[in-house]
Amino acid sequence: MIKTRLKKRRPKIVVIGGGTGLPVILKSLKEKEADVTAVVTVADDGGSSGALRETLNAVPPGDLRNVLIALSEIPQVHKDIFQYRFQSEDESLSGHSIGNLIISATADMKGNIYEAIQILAKMMLVKGHVYPAAEEPLVLNARYMDGTTAKGESHIAQSGKLIDYVALSCVGEPHPIKASRKVVSAIMDADMVVLGPGSLFTSILPNLMIPDIGKAVMATEANVVYICNIMTQLGETEGMSDADHIDVLHRHLGEKFIDIALANIGKVPAEYVEEEQSTENLLQVEHDFKGLKKAVPHIISDDFLEIRNHGVYHNGEKVAEEIFRTAFNSQRAFKNF
Protein backbone atom coordinates (compact mmCIF):
# COMPACT_ATOMS: atom_id res chain seq x y z
CA MET A 1 0.00 0.00 0.00
CA ILE A 2 1.32 3.44 -0.94
CA LYS A 3 1.39 5.76 2.04
CA THR A 4 0.27 9.37 1.86
CA ARG A 5 0.64 12.38 4.11
CA LEU A 6 -0.75 15.80 3.31
CA LYS A 7 1.45 18.77 4.08
CA LYS A 8 -0.68 21.55 5.60
CA ARG A 9 2.03 22.97 7.86
CA ARG A 10 5.75 23.45 8.06
CA PRO A 11 7.26 20.09 7.04
CA LYS A 12 8.93 18.17 9.84
CA ILE A 13 12.40 17.24 8.61
CA VAL A 14 14.78 15.07 10.64
CA VAL A 15 18.42 15.27 9.54
CA ILE A 16 20.75 12.52 10.75
CA GLY A 17 24.53 12.62 10.60
CA GLY A 18 27.62 14.43 11.79
CA GLY A 19 30.77 16.10 10.56
CA THR A 20 31.09 19.34 8.61
CA GLY A 21 28.40 18.76 5.96
CA LEU A 22 25.47 18.52 8.35
CA PRO A 23 25.51 22.14 9.65
CA VAL A 24 25.47 23.54 6.10
CA ILE A 25 22.20 21.76 5.29
CA LEU A 26 20.66 22.52 8.68
CA LYS A 27 21.37 26.24 8.40
CA SER A 28 19.73 26.41 4.98
CA LEU A 29 16.69 24.39 6.11
CA LYS A 30 16.29 26.71 9.10
CA GLU A 31 16.24 29.70 6.77
CA LYS A 32 13.45 28.05 4.77
CA GLU A 33 11.29 27.80 7.91
CA ALA A 34 11.26 24.00 8.02
CA ASP A 35 10.56 22.32 11.37
CA VAL A 36 14.04 20.85 11.74
CA THR A 37 15.33 18.16 14.09
CA ALA A 38 19.01 17.22 14.05
CA VAL A 39 20.16 13.80 15.29
CA VAL A 40 23.91 13.92 15.84
CA THR A 41 26.49 11.14 16.08
CA VAL A 42 28.23 10.48 19.42
CA ALA A 43 31.04 8.18 18.24
CA ASP A 44 33.69 10.85 17.52
CA ASP A 45 36.95 10.23 19.39
CA GLY A 46 39.36 12.62 17.71
CA GLY A 47 40.64 16.13 18.44
CA SER A 48 39.13 18.25 21.20
CA SER A 49 36.02 16.06 21.34
CA GLY A 50 38.11 12.94 21.80
CA ALA A 51 40.23 14.51 24.53
CA LEU A 52 37.18 15.67 26.49
CA ARG A 53 35.49 12.33 25.94
CA GLU A 54 38.50 10.49 27.38
CA THR A 55 39.04 12.89 30.28
CA LEU A 56 35.41 13.14 31.35
CA ASN A 57 34.04 9.84 29.98
CA ALA A 58 31.49 12.05 28.27
CA VAL A 59 29.69 12.30 24.94
CA PRO A 60 31.99 14.05 22.43
CA PRO A 61 30.67 17.60 21.98
CA GLY A 62 32.17 18.80 18.68
CA ASP A 63 29.46 17.79 16.21
CA LEU A 64 26.75 18.87 18.64
CA ARG A 65 28.45 22.26 18.98
CA ASN A 66 28.46 22.86 15.24
CA VAL A 67 24.81 21.86 14.92
CA LEU A 68 23.78 24.21 17.73
CA ILE A 69 25.57 27.05 15.94
CA ALA A 70 23.94 26.18 12.60
CA LEU A 71 20.44 26.40 14.09
CA SER A 72 21.14 29.28 16.50
CA GLU A 73 19.75 32.78 16.08
CA ILE A 74 22.10 34.54 18.50
CA PRO A 75 24.28 37.37 17.10
CA GLN A 76 27.30 36.35 15.05
CA VAL A 77 29.74 37.70 17.62
CA HIS A 78 28.25 35.35 20.22
CA LYS A 79 28.60 32.45 17.79
CA ASP A 80 32.24 33.41 17.22
CA ILE A 81 32.88 33.27 20.97
CA PHE A 82 31.23 29.84 21.23
CA GLN A 83 33.34 28.59 18.32
CA TYR A 84 36.63 30.14 19.47
CA ARG A 85 39.40 27.55 19.67
CA PHE A 86 42.43 27.99 21.96
CA GLN A 87 45.78 27.99 20.20
CA SER A 88 48.42 25.29 20.54
CA GLU A 89 50.56 27.40 22.88
CA ASP A 90 47.75 27.48 25.44
CA GLU A 91 48.99 24.17 26.85
CA SER A 92 46.15 22.44 28.75
CA LEU A 93 43.49 24.24 26.70
CA SER A 94 45.26 23.59 23.40
CA GLY A 95 42.85 22.80 20.59
CA HIS A 96 39.70 23.06 22.71
CA SER A 97 36.87 25.31 21.60
CA ILE A 98 34.92 27.29 24.18
CA GLY A 99 31.72 25.63 22.96
CA ASN A 100 33.10 22.15 23.58
CA LEU A 101 34.03 23.13 27.12
CA ILE A 102 30.61 24.68 27.78
CA ILE A 103 28.75 21.62 26.46
CA SER A 104 30.92 19.26 28.53
CA ALA A 105 30.53 21.41 31.65
CA THR A 106 26.75 21.62 31.25
CA ALA A 107 26.50 17.85 30.73
CA ASP A 108 28.59 17.31 33.86
CA MET A 109 26.38 19.71 35.81
CA LYS A 110 23.09 18.13 34.66
CA GLY A 111 24.37 14.57 34.68
CA ASN A 112 23.48 13.82 31.06
CA ILE A 113 24.09 15.19 27.57
CA TYR A 114 20.42 15.35 26.55
CA GLU A 115 19.41 17.90 29.18
CA ALA A 116 22.63 19.84 28.60
CA ILE A 117 21.86 20.27 24.90
CA GLN A 118 18.26 21.32 25.59
CA ILE A 119 19.42 23.99 28.06
CA LEU A 120 22.02 25.32 25.65
CA ALA A 121 19.54 25.24 22.77
CA LYS A 122 17.28 27.61 24.72
CA MET A 123 20.20 29.86 25.65
CA MET A 124 21.36 29.99 22.04
CA LEU A 125 17.90 30.60 20.57
CA VAL A 126 18.08 27.43 18.52
CA LYS A 127 15.35 27.23 15.89
CA GLY A 128 14.52 23.53 15.84
CA HIS A 129 15.55 20.56 17.92
CA VAL A 130 18.98 19.04 18.55
CA TYR A 131 19.31 15.53 19.97
CA PRO A 132 22.42 13.41 20.45
CA ALA A 133 21.94 10.03 18.79
CA ALA A 134 22.59 8.38 22.18
CA GLU A 135 23.16 9.70 25.68
CA GLU A 136 26.49 7.96 26.16
CA PRO A 137 29.76 7.95 24.20
CA LEU A 138 29.88 5.04 21.76
CA VAL A 139 32.78 3.21 20.19
CA LEU A 140 32.81 2.66 16.43
CA ASN A 141 34.28 -0.66 15.30
CA ALA A 142 35.18 -1.61 11.74
CA ARG A 143 35.78 -4.87 9.92
CA TYR A 144 37.86 -4.57 6.77
CA MET A 145 37.52 -6.55 3.55
CA ASP A 146 40.54 -8.65 4.53
CA GLY A 147 38.88 -9.70 7.80
CA THR A 148 40.98 -7.52 10.12
CA THR A 149 39.36 -5.07 12.52
CA ALA A 150 39.91 -1.64 14.03
CA LYS A 151 38.36 0.32 16.88
CA GLY A 152 37.71 4.05 17.22
CA GLU A 153 36.26 6.50 14.70
CA SER A 154 39.49 8.47 14.31
CA HIS A 155 41.57 5.33 13.67
CA ILE A 156 39.36 3.44 11.23
CA ALA A 157 40.29 5.41 8.11
CA GLN A 158 44.02 5.34 8.84
CA SER A 159 44.67 1.73 7.86
CA GLY A 160 44.35 2.30 4.13
CA LYS A 161 42.16 -0.81 3.89
CA LEU A 162 38.67 -1.06 2.41
CA ILE A 163 35.92 -1.13 5.03
CA ASP A 164 33.40 -3.95 4.88
CA TYR A 165 31.19 -3.28 7.90
CA VAL A 166 30.93 -1.04 10.96
CA ALA A 167 29.21 -1.64 14.30
CA LEU A 168 28.94 0.07 17.67
CA SER A 169 29.91 -0.94 21.16
CA CYS A 170 29.49 0.82 24.49
CA VAL A 171 32.16 1.96 26.91
CA GLY A 172 32.67 -0.22 29.98
CA GLU A 173 30.44 -3.19 30.81
CA PRO A 174 28.44 -4.41 27.78
CA HIS A 175 24.83 -3.26 27.78
CA PRO A 176 22.14 -2.56 25.17
CA ILE A 177 22.71 0.66 23.25
CA LYS A 178 19.65 2.91 23.23
CA ALA A 179 18.74 5.97 21.24
CA SER A 180 18.54 9.28 23.07
CA ARG A 181 15.09 10.29 24.26
CA LYS A 182 12.77 11.79 21.60
CA VAL A 183 14.93 10.62 18.69
CA VAL A 184 12.72 7.70 17.70
CA SER A 185 9.48 9.68 18.10
CA ALA A 186 10.92 12.48 15.96
CA ILE A 187 11.77 10.02 13.17
CA MET A 188 8.37 8.35 13.33
CA ASP A 189 6.55 11.70 13.24
CA ALA A 190 8.65 13.21 10.45
CA ASP A 191 7.55 14.12 6.94
CA MET A 192 11.07 13.50 5.71
CA VAL A 193 14.23 11.90 7.11
CA VAL A 194 17.51 13.09 5.60
CA LEU A 195 20.81 11.21 5.84
CA GLY A 196 23.94 13.26 5.29
CA PRO A 197 25.84 14.74 3.72
CA GLY A 198 28.73 13.26 5.63
CA SER A 199 31.28 10.49 5.90
CA LEU A 200 29.49 7.25 5.09
CA PHE A 201 31.14 4.94 7.62
CA THR A 202 32.04 7.42 10.36
CA SER A 203 29.27 10.06 10.38
CA ILE A 204 26.09 8.46 9.01
CA LEU A 205 26.28 4.76 9.85
CA PRO A 206 27.21 5.33 13.53
CA ASN A 207 23.70 6.73 13.96
CA LEU A 208 21.89 4.03 11.99
CA MET A 209 23.70 1.21 13.80
CA ILE A 210 21.98 2.21 17.04
CA PRO A 211 19.23 -0.44 16.90
CA ASP A 212 16.33 1.87 17.83
CA ILE A 213 17.33 4.43 15.22
CA GLY A 214 17.90 1.89 12.45
CA LYS A 215 14.49 0.30 13.07
CA ALA A 216 12.76 3.69 13.18
CA VAL A 217 14.30 4.81 9.89
CA MET A 218 13.07 1.63 8.22
CA ALA A 219 9.59 1.84 9.78
CA THR A 220 8.80 5.54 9.44
CA GLU A 221 6.05 6.76 7.10
CA ALA A 222 8.40 9.55 6.03
CA ASN A 223 10.40 9.53 2.83
CA VAL A 224 14.06 8.76 3.59
CA VAL A 225 16.50 10.85 1.55
CA TYR A 226 20.21 10.17 1.19
CA ILE A 227 22.38 13.13 0.16
CA CYS A 228 25.17 11.51 -1.83
CA ASN A 229 28.69 12.72 -1.13
CA ILE A 230 30.50 14.78 -3.75
CA MET A 231 34.02 13.45 -3.11
CA THR A 232 35.36 10.07 -2.08
CA GLN A 233 37.21 9.91 1.24
CA LEU A 234 40.58 8.44 2.06
CA GLY A 235 40.28 5.22 4.05
CA GLU A 236 36.51 5.06 3.61
CA THR A 237 35.06 5.27 0.12
CA GLU A 238 37.83 5.18 -2.49
CA GLY A 239 36.48 4.09 -5.86
CA MET A 240 32.85 4.08 -4.71
CA SER A 241 30.05 5.55 -6.83
CA ASP A 242 26.96 7.23 -5.38
CA ALA A 243 25.05 3.97 -5.92
CA ASP A 244 27.76 2.07 -4.02
CA HIS A 245 27.24 4.39 -1.02
CA ILE A 246 23.55 3.51 -0.96
CA ASP A 247 24.27 -0.21 -1.33
CA VAL A 248 26.45 -0.02 1.80
CA LEU A 249 23.62 1.63 3.75
CA HIS A 250 21.10 -0.97 2.61
CA ARG A 251 23.47 -3.82 3.41
CA HIS A 252 24.08 -2.56 6.94
CA LEU A 253 20.37 -2.39 7.79
CA GLY A 254 19.45 -5.52 5.85
CA GLU A 255 16.87 -4.05 3.49
CA LYS A 256 16.23 -1.25 1.01
CA PHE A 257 15.02 1.71 3.04
CA ILE A 258 16.15 4.81 1.13
CA ASP A 259 13.36 6.32 -0.95
CA ILE A 260 15.13 9.25 -2.61
CA ALA A 261 18.76 9.78 -3.63
CA LEU A 262 19.92 13.37 -4.03
CA ALA A 263 22.97 13.21 -6.29
CA ASN A 264 25.38 15.81 -7.61
CA ILE A 265 26.07 15.84 -11.36
CA GLY A 266 28.13 19.03 -11.40
CA LYS A 267 31.72 18.55 -12.50
CA VAL A 268 34.39 19.33 -9.91
CA PRO A 269 37.15 21.41 -11.58
CA ALA A 270 40.35 19.43 -12.09
CA GLU A 271 42.42 21.84 -10.03
CA TYR A 272 40.18 21.25 -7.01
CA VAL A 273 40.41 17.48 -7.37
CA GLU A 274 44.20 17.74 -7.34
CA GLU A 275 44.08 20.01 -4.30
CA GLU A 276 41.65 17.75 -2.44
CA GLN A 277 43.91 14.75 -2.99
CA SER A 278 46.35 16.16 -0.45
CA THR A 279 43.70 15.99 2.29
CA GLU A 280 41.19 13.34 3.33
CA ASN A 281 39.31 13.61 0.03
CA LEU A 282 40.34 11.89 -3.17
CA LEU A 283 38.32 12.10 -6.38
CA GLN A 284 34.82 13.08 -7.33
CA VAL A 285 32.20 10.43 -6.57
CA GLU A 286 31.08 8.81 -9.82
CA HIS A 287 27.42 9.37 -10.66
CA ASP A 288 25.96 5.92 -11.43
CA PHE A 289 22.42 6.66 -12.59
CA LYS A 290 21.66 3.04 -13.56
CA GLY A 291 22.88 1.79 -10.20
CA LEU A 292 20.84 4.40 -8.35
CA LYS A 293 17.75 3.48 -10.35
CA LYS A 294 18.07 -0.12 -9.16
CA ALA A 295 18.62 0.94 -5.55
CA VAL A 296 16.02 3.67 -4.95
CA PRO A 297 12.58 4.62 -6.29
CA HIS A 298 13.37 8.28 -6.93
CA ILE A 299 16.48 10.26 -7.92
CA ILE A 300 17.01 14.01 -7.69
CA SER A 301 20.12 14.92 -9.69
CA ASP A 302 21.45 18.42 -10.27
CA ASP A 303 24.57 20.52 -9.98
CA PHE A 304 24.80 20.87 -6.20
CA LEU A 305 28.44 22.03 -6.16
CA GLU A 306 29.72 25.04 -4.29
CA ILE A 307 33.41 25.93 -4.50
CA ARG A 308 34.54 28.03 -1.52
CA ASN A 309 37.48 28.38 0.85
CA HIS A 310 39.61 26.39 -1.61
CA GLY A 311 37.35 23.35 -1.15
CA VAL A 312 34.41 21.46 -2.63
CA TYR A 313 31.11 21.55 -0.76
CA HIS A 314 27.38 21.03 -1.24
CA ASN A 315 25.46 24.18 -2.04
CA GLY A 316 23.39 24.24 1.15
CA GLU A 317 20.73 26.57 -0.21
CA LYS A 318 20.17 24.50 -3.35
CA VAL A 319 20.08 21.19 -1.47
CA ALA A 320 17.73 22.60 1.16
CA GLU A 321 15.43 23.93 -1.56
CA GLU A 322 15.10 20.44 -3.08
CA ILE A 323 14.56 18.82 0.32
CA PHE A 324 12.03 21.43 1.44
CA ARG A 325 10.07 21.32 -1.82
CA THR A 326 9.95 17.52 -1.84
CA ALA A 327 8.93 17.32 1.83
CA PHE A 328 6.27 19.99 1.45
CA ASN A 329 4.73 19.02 -1.88
CA SER A 330 5.03 15.24 -2.00
CA GLN A 331 1.77 13.48 -1.23
CA ARG A 332 3.04 10.00 -1.82
CA ALA A 333 5.86 8.04 -0.24
CA PHE A 334 8.12 5.82 -2.27
CA LYS A 335 7.86 2.86 0.08
CA ASN A 336 7.46 -0.77 -1.01
CA PHE A 337 9.90 -0.28 -3.88
From TrEMBL:
<protein>
    <recommendedName>
        <fullName>Putative gluconeogenesis factor</fullName>
    </recommendedName>
</protein>
<dbReference type="InterPro" id="IPR010119">
    <property type="entry name" value="Gluconeogen_factor"/>
</dbReference>
<comment type="function">
    <text>Required for morphogenesis under gluconeogenic growth conditions.</text>
</comment>
<dbReference type="InterPro" id="IPR002882">
    <property type="entry name" value="CofD"/>
</dbReference>
<dbReference type="Pfam" id="PF01933">
    <property type="entry name" value="CofD"/>
</dbReference>
<keyword id="KW-0963">Cytoplasm</keyword>
<comment type="similarity">
    <text>Belongs to the gluconeogenesis factor family.</text>
</comment>
<dbReference type="GO" id="GO:0043743">
    <property type="term" value="F:LPPG:FO 2-phospho-L-lactate transferase activity"/>
</dbReference>
<dbReference type="InterPro" id="IPR038136">
    <property type="entry name" value="CofD-like_dom_sf"/>
</dbReference>
<dbReference type="GO" id="GO:0005737">
    <property type="term" value="C:cytoplasm"/>
</dbReference>
<dbReference type="GO" id="GO:0008360">
    <property type="term" value="P:regulation of cell shape"/>
</dbReference>
<keyword id="KW-0808">Transferase</keyword>
